[in-house]
Amino acid sequence: MSWIKIISFNEAQGKLKRLYSKVTGPNNNVDNIMLIHGLRPHTMVGHMSLYKNVLHNSNNTLPKWYLETLGVYVSILNKCDYCIEHHFLGLKKLLKDDEKSDSIRKQLELNSYESILEHKYIEGLKYAEKLTLEPNKLIEEHIGKLRKKGLTDGEILEINQVVSYFNYANRTVLGLGVSTKGDVLGLSPNSSEDDNWNHQ
């Protein structure tokens, strides 16, 4: 499931076993994107902390389904199938509307989402595309456009961090050949508490 050695949950010992136990899902499943950190557990701590606080923190004000939508879009732009499949299922669980979820995914894949979301969310996706594909071309005016659509500076920061996280996650997956083989797709943290990393 990857191009480098991984250490399974059953093989793990000590600190690594304790870290894996914090992120397990059903039947002690650990997502492959976390297993990839087994040889350097401290990088897993950083990854999980960033992921949890960027996507699953109670202080965020943007809807979690929209944050997942941003993640799916960034992953589509980067052609990261692993993150597309995981986070699209997360999006479906949050929306509880398969038809709407499927429509969002289709429009994101076509890069033609202007008819399916509110104006401020559309502007956030445009920013996500620029930050992913042409970050050096971003200027202050792009932030101004987000503000004009009704996003607060705190929400702009949320968008920036989600997009930045997914670019990191996509490159982790694509750069090390992480696949979905053996994974349980669509799991995410049970709660928004900072220290609760458990997946459901």
Describe the structure.
- Helix content is 59%, strand content 0%.
- It is an all-alpha fold.
Task: Tell me briefly what this model is.
It is built from 9 helices and no strands. It has helices spanning 14-22, 32-35, 41-55, 64-77, 81-95, 98-110, 119-133, 140-148, 153-176.
CA-CA gap between termini: 21 Å
How many beta strands in the DSSP annotation?
A: 0
Shape: globular
Secondary-structure element series: HHHHHHHHH
Rounded to an integer, what's the Rg over CA atoms?
17 Å
Number of helices: 9
Largest sheet: none
The oligomeric status of these chains comes to single chain
Poorly predicted tracts of residues: none
Keywords:
globular; 9 helices; mainly alpha; single chain; 0% strand; 200 residues
Q: Secondary structure elements and their pairing?
A:
Layout: H1 14-22, H2 32-35, H3 41-55, H4 64-77, H5 81-95, H6 98-110, H7 119-133, H8 140-148, H9 153-176
